[in-house]
Input
Amino acid sequence: MTIQDTTAADGILLQTSNLTMRFGGVVAVSDVSLTLRELELRCLIGPNGAGKSTFFKMLTGQLKPSTGAISFRGAPIAGDDPHAIARRGIGIKTQVPNVFDGLSVREHIWLAARRQHLDRRANDVVASVLDRIRMTHLAGAQVGRLSHGQRQWVEIGMVIAGDPDLILLDEPAAGMTHDEVLRTAEIIRDINQTKALIVVEHDMQFIRMIAKTVTVFNQGAVLVESTVDAVLADQRVRDVYLGKKVH
Ligand SMILES: Nc1ncnc2c1ncn2[C@@H]1O[C@H](COP(=O)(O)OP(=O)(O)OP(=O)(O)O)[C@@H](O)[C@H]1O
Output
């Protein structure tokens, strides 16, 4: 079956086929074929330099793949510009901060919602997003006064305010306190009731809290794809993380 034969009717949301990204002589992503179904929550792990961020950048249009295809809801999107891909329904929270200290939580969410919806609808969306990120009580707070974790939740809120069908989260739990990590896992599980997600993370405890299927990248290629328990028990995964804790 070719990538063009698959449609939304198969329940497949995203499919990459032999996706490859070369930077000169460096093959950052090599022949990655990955399928994500509607409402899936996929975790993507792998050691530093494994190609996870490069893979995300191809999905969002920041990078044009050297070869291979990406299909989203059955439509080819590889090489499309980031705005076009966002409009199709792929949203991302990157590791780069995207908030303004002087604006309130509500203003951030409203601005993100307003890009997608008319004023009245945007207000409803803001209320529901604030509830989903558990920040209704902090709606009026300036983002500059929030904790690191709270700022991350605002960024997640800004992504869901755009109502994407697929949400990419790049290390959402990085730098968080234990309580913030627990809350983030809860927020992500809640979002997954209505949205598909791909989450890149290094924190294995966090992965255990949210993961169903885990895809392991190593040296640009998919090493293993399985349940969280099977992946963490896999000797090949242990070998690539040699010297690092994977449980
Ligand atoms: N713009 C670029 N030019 C040249 N090489 C690059 C570029 N971007 C990434 N690479 C290389 O591609 C490989 C994959 O990098 P990438 O950042 O995708 O890995 P990663 O799995 O996201 O790592 P980390 O977990 O550290 O974020 C690395 O060898 C990296 O040095």
Residues 119-132 form the longest helix (14 residues). Confidence is low (pLDDT under 50) at residues 1-6. The beta strands are 12-23, 26-37, 41-45, 67-72, 75-76, 90-93, 166-170, 196-200, 213-218, 221-227. The chain is about 35% helix and 25% strand.
